[in-house]
Amino acid sequence: MTINAMSERQSSLTEQINKRVQETSATIPVLGITISEDRWLIPMSNISEILPVPKITPVFLTQPWFLGVINVRGNVYGLCDLSHYLDNTSTCISAKTRVFLTIPRLGVSYAMLAGSVLGIRNLMEFVPQSDHEDKRPVVAGIYKDRQDRLWRMLNLPALLQLESFQRAGS
């Protein structure tokens, strides 16, 4: 194979890879939620279920953001108030408040409290913002929607690995 042929082949492969990456990112479903006053996105691949807030059984001597445990069809989940954990502001539980469950593949059965669910979107609807200032490890990126509103991408695997999150006990 000549150098020109190798170069052309490499260019062709690069084009194919770029096309696949664009196609893949175009089909990433994300869940839009509110945490405090902010809009957040979570890849649907990290969520097993979304449900209304069930009965919460408090667990004493835990961090204020750890609300207790919930029972979902015989499975017990620790419940985190994301607003309180991230912004030190408790979520006011209302008819709009929802709980989403993490997928077992993340290694921990956890439930997260969201102020409200804004719907399932396609990541392609958002424009990544490279100049964002939010450097928290749980923020995988910042995006803008067509209405020029900012959305943060929640990095659930990173959140579940944080030592401060793993130590829910006081």
Description:
- The protein has 170 residues and is an alpha+beta fold.
- The protein is 24% helix and 38% strand.
- It contains four helices and eleven strands.
- The protein has helices spanning 3-26, 82-87, 156-161, 163-166; strands spanning 29-35, 38-43, 47-52, 66-72, 75-81, 98-102, 110-114, 116-122, 127-129, 139-144, 150-154.
- The strands form two sheets. A six-stranded mixed beta sheet has the order 8-1-2-11-10-9. Strands 3-6-7-5-4 form a five-stranded mixed beta sheet.
- The mean pLDDT is 88.
Structural class: alpha+beta
| The level-1 CATH class | Mainly Beta
- DSSP summary: helix tally: 4
> Termini distance?
66 Å
Helix content: 10-25%
Tally of DSSP β-strands: 11
Return the CATH architecture: Beta Barrel
How are the strands of the largest sheet arranged?
8-1-2-11-10-9
Taking all Cα atoms into account, the compactness measure Rg is 20 Å
- How many domains, as an integer? 1
Segments where pLDDT lies below 50 for 5+ residues? Answer: none
Largest sheet, if any? 6 strands, mixed
- Following the backbone from N to C, one meets helices and strands in this order, namely HEEEEEHEEEEEEHH
**CATH homology superfamily name:** CheA-289, Domain 4
Overall mean confidence score, pLDDT: 88
Taken from the alpha-carbon principal axes, the silhouette is elongated
Strand content: 35-45%
